[in-house]
Amino acid sequence: MEQQQIEWDVYCQPEPLTRCNRDGEVYRRNPAVDKQIREILRLDAEGIIERSRIRDEASSKFVKEETLVYLIRHFHKAGDRRTVSDLSECLLSRCVAVVYSTLGALGKVLADEGHLDVISELFSKILDLNSDVGDFLQVRFWVVLKRLSVQVFRKLVKRISYESPSVLAFEEVGETALARSTVATGASPYPSPESYAVNRTLIREALGQLKEPIKTAFLLRHYAGWPIEHRDEDVPTISRHFAKTPRTIRNWLATAEEILEEWRGE
Length: 266
Hints:
Shape: elongated
Number of strands: 0
Radius of gyration: 23 Å
């Protein structure tokens, strides 16, 4: 009986992380995450899923995202596909809003495409048992998810920047994004279908006046809502995106405004 208890305690003990940070120090989970892992692994499969579906973050039973990542990897290693699927569904439901908050400015079609790319990359890290690439997801999950979302956003912006302005998906952007744009000055936040179509046409024509990299900088600022600079390195900024000083980015945006002002005048 005592031997069984020892084996059970070992089973519930979280496996240590092995990936190191830039200073050569091995990553460590938050102690609260390790504690949750030990608690949850003592439950049966039904109890684990039931607790993982709690969405109230103020609840003492709320399962942290970092814990969910560990559990998915744990049951994936054990070959328990059903539990992996159920836990993955719980984690995915929490990711949607964050991913679309980054990709939404690209319009529904591209945002949906980007969302699939983000989730695919996310789970390729989580389910990779042959490396420690998923370790940081057990330390700061949201940092990784936001970085993946930004990477996919950049990839899509780069892709559409080589295409005609007419395929920039502005027909899918939506009234809120149009109202945010300086190009749509004076437009109603909720235009009629006719005026919305006119605004789309005007926006495409206006953006055709801008050359790269000014056009992409303008889109990042006025459609994606990116700041020019920010102290937090995890926040995507236009300055870091182009590896240029904030002053250079401001000059680009000022140039864009001058070009668009002249276009409006004409």
